TrEMBL record:
<dbReference type="InterPro" id="IPR004294">
    <property type="entry name" value="Carotenoid_Oase"/>
</dbReference>
<comment type="similarity">
    <text>Belongs to the carotenoid oxygenase family.</text>
</comment>
<keyword id="KW-0408">Iron</keyword>
<feature type="binding site">
    <location>
        <position position="469"/>
    </location>
    <ligand>
        <name>Fe cation</name>
    </ligand>
</feature>
<protein>
    <recommendedName>
        <fullName>Dioxygenase</fullName>
        <ecNumber>1.13.11.-</ecNumber>
    </recommendedName>
</protein>
<dbReference type="Pfam" id="PF03055">
    <property type="entry name" value="RPE65"/>
</dbReference>
<feature type="binding site">
    <location>
        <position position="234"/>
    </location>
    <ligand>
        <name>Fe cation</name>
    </ligand>
</feature>
<keyword id="KW-0560">Oxidoreductase</keyword>
<dbReference type="GO" id="GO:0010436">
    <property type="term" value="F:carotenoid dioxygenase activity"/>
</dbReference>
<feature type="binding site">
    <location>
        <position position="296"/>
    </location>
    <ligand>
        <name>Fe cation</name>
    </ligand>
</feature>
<dbReference type="GO" id="GO:0046872">
    <property type="term" value="F:metal ion binding"/>
</dbReference>
<feature type="binding site">
    <location>
        <position position="184"/>
    </location>
    <ligand>
        <name>Fe cation</name>
    </ligand>
</feature>
<keyword id="KW-0479">Metal-binding</keyword>
<dbReference type="GO" id="GO:0016121">
    <property type="term" value="P:carotene catabolic process"/>
</dbReference>
<keyword id="KW-0223">Dioxygenase</keyword>
Length: 477
């Protein structure tokens, strides 16, 4: 990979954060790491709910250099709400990477944003060890598997965190998955296995792997046959028999970025292809469809006749300045017939929604409700937020909604009642932020009657910037 010579690189200024909707207001990054015990609870936190809700998201440590592309640029910050015996405590910590450590030493951003055309820093900027190295951005998601808490990046090495979400270090899985994993692994609740994939700029371009319930790698990175270039793939789906990957035509060209161009190109003429990868390692089957983009799946499951169903949020294109066409968003139920090589799609709802989640105890099996962050249209909102939560039951078309007055919301996450398989006895939770970013809330909504809104609101007297993905980590696991 050749970088631009120093004298050819553009002089980059700092991004105007106040003018960027993902760096201001409820998205404005925070710098301070705080610990706030004994928070005020309005309503009541169930005494049987004990654990922590952790959520990751982009939170640039310093004002970005050259460009800022939400949700791909940033530094990771994990926000943690501990719930114990009806009490609540909040804390937050950066996910610390070598690049962030060096930037803190210098007191400024050193790595240009990926759309800046600035390439990668050379030895004069960052010294020999980090020169020409892509910085880690473990800011997308946080999961726990086999007792290991991982802050996850976009198809790269995750970072391992301690239970109090301090950074332990880069996770290489004992060298067995050296290039990293998706930010959206899927954990099979029946087998305890964690399924992952990784895309890369060079052959084989796309691999998948499996970690066993003890965290050991039971399938080393396995190339997905039939892939001849590098596609950006943000999420995946899992059924009891297959891994499903959507190859939307968003191509990656790091060489173009290194020479001052865009690393991403949208090529709708290529269509979107769906790979159905048997979990037993059998031959990959492909289904071709018209071009669409998706950030996130909700879930997938097998039908008795060999077809499979995937619920996901579909876009006409990925945005990010890559298309001038208007963009619509829909919750889609796709039924894929790998034998016939076709897919049929049904629109569950056409609305501005994101962050679809289910009760993860149903991952890979037929689910009941899908929760999403939704925009009511009462105000203009930046991408990646909502002012309502919607719940869909695709099996009968039911839709419920709770509208959050003036608060801005992120991803809803399910928490089960301990020892109780009934999803109606669980709760949905999320962080919510005041529009001006002055303070924040942790909201707990009963799954039995979600449209009635929170049964408990925890006031957080600092800004929890709107972010990406999180999970409830119960104490007893
Ligand atoms: Fe995501």
């Amino acid at each position: 990979m050749n970088a631009l010579p120093a004298h050819d690189r553009p002089a980059l200024g700092l991004v105007d954060a106040a003018a960027d909707p993902h760096l201001s207001g409820a998205f404005e990054p925070v710098v301070d790491e705080v610990e706030l015990p004994g928070l005020t609870v309005i309503g009541e936190l169930p005494v049987e709910l004990n654990g922590m809700y952790v959520r990751n998201g982009p939170n640039p440590r310093f004002t970005p250099l050259g460009s800022y592309l939400y949700p791909i640029d940033g530094d990771g910050m994990v926000h943690r709400m501990q719930i114990a015996d009806g009490t609540a405590a909040y804390s937050n910590r950066f996910v610390r990477t070598p690049a962030m450590d060096l930037e803190e030493q210098r007191g400024r951003a050193l790595w240009p944003g990926i759309m800046s055309g600035g390439g990668l820093p050379d030895p004069a900027d960052v010294g020999p060890d980090l020169a020409y190295v892509t910085r880690d951005i473990p800011d997308v998601n946080i999961v726990r598997h086999a007792g290991r808490i991982l802050a996850l990046a976009e198809s790269a090495n995750p970072f391992c965190l301690s239970p109090d979400v301090r950074t332990v270090g880069r996770e290489l899985f004992d060298g067995a998955i050296p290039l990293g994993i998706t930010a959206h692994p899927k954990i099979d609740p029946v087998t305890g296995e964690m399924f992952v994939f990784c895309y890369m700029e060079e052959p084989p371009y796309l691999t998948w792997s499996v970690l066993g319930p003890d965290g050991g790698v039971v399938r080393a990175p396995t190339p997905v046959s039939g892939v001849d270039t590098s596609f950006m793939i943000h999420d995946m789906a899992l059924t009891s028999t297959a891994v499903v990957l959507f190859l939307a035509p968003l191509l990656i060209d790091v060489a173009a970025m290194m020479s001052g161009g865009s690393p991403l190109s949208w090529r709708p003429e290529l269509g979107t292809r769906i790979a159905i990868i048997p979990r037993d390692g059998g031959a990959v089957r492909w289904v071709s469809d018209e071009a669409f983009w998706l950030w996130h799946t909700a879930n997938a499951f097998d039908l008795d006749d060999g077809r499979l169903v995937v619920d996901y949020v579909q876009y006409d294109h990925p945005g990010m300045g890559l298309s001038t066409l208007p963009k619509t968003t829909s919750l889609i139920r796709a039924t894929i017939d790998p034998g016939a090589g076709n897919v049929t799609r049904a629109t569950v709802d056409e609305a501005s929604i994101e962050f679809p989640r289910i009760d993860d105890r149903r991952m890979g099996q037929e689910h009941d409700w899908i929760a999403v962050a939704a925009e009511t249209g009462r105000r203009e909102l930046p991408h990646g937020t909502g002012d309502a939560i919607r719940w869909y039951r695709p099996s009968d078309g039911t839709m419920l909604q709770w509208t959050a007055d003036d608060l801005l919301l992120g991803e809803p996450t399910f928490a089960a009642r301990p020892g109780d398989p009934d999803p109606d006895h669980g709760w949905w939770m999320t962080f919510a932020t005041e529009p001006n970013g002055s303070e924040s809330w942790f909201l707990l909504v009963p799954a039995a009657d979600p449209a009635s809104g929170p049964v408990a609101r925890v006031r957080i007297p600092v800004r929890v910037p709107l972010g990406l993905h999180g999970n409830w980590l119960p104490d007893e696991e």
